[in-house]
Design a protein that fits this description.
five-stranded mixed sheet, 2 domains, 358 residues, globular, binds adenosine-5'-triphosphate, binds magnesium ion
Length: 358
């Protein structure tokens, strides 16, 4: 029997191996956003949002299409003016000292922006020159980054021949050539297949373990936010509706557990017996001896269920207990499923690959 306690749905992606770095709540703030507002005419895209990101933290902005995530990033990275409120980047007010703020940051915008006609290495060199990285350090930094994003053997490949995931990794390397202290990534994995998404997560973990970096990442993938981020801010319709660690956010939802269990040849009355177990609120037979059992106490029901199966001589083929997920958190704070929202307006698709990988 396989027991998969607290398993999470991640769209077929396998869990990356890296450990989340420890988040230090007493560290100084790398980013401080205070009552920030962005208006386009009468429309308020960002509505009085405040938060602080600690030095060394991985901070996630989670929200559906149109929530205001990119607008927030654009204001914090000096790309668009702030209507009211303030954004401080490493102690620099972006409205008054944009150049000082810019020197501290690396930015990966939502759309892919690497030059298709250049090679991987040329794309990195151009950025290094643009940021005035001294010649001596340039090659060292590029070699190190190519290694970190696992593109060393593609360094001479033309960028147009890369897959979407590899191109994303190149852009992440490009955003780091000048050794920024704070790294902004706007939906780095949207449109990638599950394997490429995991490669990007692993790579971010890898980079984080080699460089002292604060990361602000936007996403609408719950599993990504859960696995990568020390803390998550949920944004909806321009407003910040919740902010905490993934664990605390999940604990704040009065949720139930789901047990997915498969038995070998269960008897006819098995569904009723499962229903009679402690704390069970519903039992849904799914065919092939599979049942989805909802309970208000996952561990107690699991114990009772396994004991009953052993006593009745019914083998358990597989069993998984799922805790409350960030999906439940999103529904709790916004009243809607994030997935439904995304289906209404899916704005971004990866461009077609013009050629084969070399
Ligand atoms: N230049 C603009 N002029 C007018 N409205 C804009 C402009 N830029 C963004 N908006 C609006 O502001 C809102 C927030 O947009 P934003 O791009 O920040 O959302 P997002 O959370 O990044 O969404 P997505 O997940 O689709 O990238 C949207 O309703 C968008 O239509
Ligand atoms: Mg966006």
């Amino acid at each position: 029997m396989t027991v998969d306690a607290n398993s999470k749905s991640n769209g077929g992606a396998t869990a990356p191996e890296f450990e989340k770095p420890a988040y230090d709540p007493t560290a100084p703030s790398a980013i401080e956003v205070s009552h920030i507002v962005k208006k386009y005419g009468d429309f308020t895209a960002v509505d009085d949002v405040s938060f602080a990101v600690k030095d060394g933290e991985i901070f996630g902005l989670l929200g559906p299409n149109g929530a205001g995530k990119s607008t927030l990033i654009r204001m914090m990275t000096t790309l668009i003016p702030i209507t009211s409120g303030t954004a401080m980047i490493a102690g620099h007010n972006v409205a008054n000292e944009p150049n000082a703020a810019r020197r501290m940051i690396g930015v990966i915008p939502q759309a892919l922006t690497s030059d298709l006609d250049l090679t991987v290495e040329e794309n990195l060199h151009i950025y290094a020159k643009l940021y005035d990285v001294p010649l001596k350090q340039r090659q060292r930094s590029i070699d190190e980054l190519l290694e970190l994003v696992d593109l060393t053997k593609w360094r001479d490949a033309q960028t147009k021949t890369l897959s979407g995931g590899m191109r994303r990794r190149l852009e992440i390397a490009r955003g780091l050539v000048h050794h920024p202290k704070i790294f902004f990534l706007d939906e780095p994995t949207t449109g990638l297949d599950p394997v490429s998404r995991v490669a990007v997560w692993e790579m971010l973990g890898n980079i984080k373990s080699h460089r002292q970096l604060t990361i602000l990442i936007t996403t609408h993938y719950m599993d990504e936010a859960d696995r990568l981020c020390d803390r998550i801010a949920i944004v909806d319709h321009g407003k910040l509706v919740a902010l905490d660690t993934p664990a605390a956010l999940k604990a704040s939802v009065p949720g139930s557990n789901v047990i997915e269990v498969q038995f070998e040849n269960p008897p006819e009355d098995w569904e009723g017996k499962l229903h009679a177990l402690d704390d069970v609120t519903s039992v849904q037979p799914e065919g092939g001896g599979m049942f989805r059992v909802l309970t208000s106490n996952g561990s107690r029901t699991t114990t009772g269920l396994v004991e009953m199966a052993v006593q009745s001589g019914i083998p358990v083929k597989s069993l998984s207990v799922q805790n409350t997920t960030l999906d439940d958190v999103f529904v709790h704070y916004t009243g809607r499923q994030l997935r439904d929202e995304l289906q209404k307006a899916y704005a971004f698709t990866m461009p077609q690959r013009p050629g084969l990988q070399p």
